[in-house]
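Run Nitrite and sulfite reductase 4Fe-4S region through structure prediction, thanks.
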Amino acid sequence: MAHKKEELKEGCYGDEVRDHILEFADNGGYEAIPEDEHEKWFTRFKFWGLFHQRSGQESYFMMRLTNASGILEPDQLRTIGEVAREYAKGPVENPEFGNGWIDLTTRQSVQLHWLKLEDVPEIWDKLESAGVHSRSAGGDTMRNISGCPLHGKAEEFVEAGPLLERFEEDLRKDDALANMPRKFNISASGCTVGCAQDSINDIGFEPATKEIGGEAVRGFNVRIGGGLGGRQPRAATPLDVFVRPENAYEVGRGFVELYHDYGNRQNRSKNRARFFAEDWGMEKIRETLQDEYVDFEMHTEGEDFREEYTYNAGRPVEAGQHDHVGVGDQKDGQNYVGLSVPVGRLPAEDAIELADLADEYGSGEIRLTRRQNPVIVDVADEDLEELLAEPILEEYPAEPSPFERGAMACTGTEFCSIALTETKGRMARMLRWFNKNVELPDDVGKIKMHYSGCTADCGQAMTADIGLQGMRARKNGEMVEAFDIGVGGGVGEDPSFIDWVQQRVPADEAPGAIRNLLEAYAAHRSEGQTFREWVEATAEEQLVEFCEPEETDFEAPYMADAKQSWYPFAESESAAAATGEESAAPSDD
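Sure, done. The structure for Nitrite and sulfite reductase 4Fe-4S region is below.
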């Protein structure tokens, strides 16, 4: 029997949903949607990147945009910023971030909040006039495609741009494949840094080489079935397939069609592609692809470059690029400048100013990374010093602190109905506190700290040096916001997921626990040892002991219930607050 979500999508999903959104918008917006049809239409709206914000924020919507592999062409960030300035205004200001801002996402795109449905047609007109759209940005479909944000700019072993573009134009825009069993993530990268994080995608194409007919051929190896969430993370499994660049699209499309045709539509907690891949196994999938979906003979996998991966791989800074923050070389002799935006939130005016800087010092193009940061590209040597001296770079530096450089955070209870804790504001406060209260060895250039408001893990806590997941706990007889704290995650050659060392730590005791852990790392590490390496070399019992919760002078707002702390919210107690139970609800449902 099909899951209820399948029934809600039945009869209208994909491109045709847009006409209904426009009709509702023209006839009064939120109020035009029959109350008994909210669930049905909100499920369908997601395909167009339109998410109704949580209960208590009735009539307000979030819009997720899509721009494959993080490319924002000249004027696009400015347009997004202008839309945010005009339309993304809540009933009150966020005490940490004000009103009218954009969120940079972990899939190299942008989210806008506090939108009114009646404004959506005009918002779409403004965005689409600049080439920005929201189609296929949410729901059970192919999400924004991730890749190296510097493809075409930095050195690549194999050029990934044409493949990424074809996935975007020919695959994601195919309405026949709009209704997938669940959301589906695609990545492709031609660089040897590993920045597309292929190991946590439903299908990933990574650079490889193989001898075919006596010739060394450059192309891609294929991995499938990676993903996070629900405390059931999976690293993608090699499919034992190597493809030439000109054949890669057909294999990618083939697996999308296979999952579309055979994927589980009954049990949503077990129907992501990672469970499908586990259930079928690599041999059956490979044989089915060959027999039913691919019309050329696939080769077995070639030699990969995973041993060279440095992106979020827990390796020393001198080993290579571990993010895209800072100044780097482009293959054309120009430079890119990656800026640190802690927790990925940019006020609209700052987004517009960054667009102005990209015009003034570069080509106007901006790239977005999987770590919620923007990169200004095409900066000439003679312009670097002046760009780096711009006042706004004091707020979003190219050389941030190790904590700011490694920070990521999901949306949290501010807007997400399944989150258990507030995230972005709290993480911003914690970063300032760590900067003042924790001293790291001089050779430690980053501590990757990721914060997810629940087990769906949109903040990718499972792949962090220190991963935080929102929970609830009792303290002094009161239910409060809390964290589970894990350590030792990362991708790279051998992806690993965090091991939990403390659970349900009240939010006001968590910074002290993390400080104690980091002080132990500084005191006991070997020379040059990264945090991930130190965790791997340290007994679990010791890590638990080092990470001792402690009350400090850290001021922890929103302890009782972030959902009612600073903006108008429903009077009724939230389900999360009422139960205090762990949620395994999947992301974006």
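The first strand starts at residue 50 and ends at 52.
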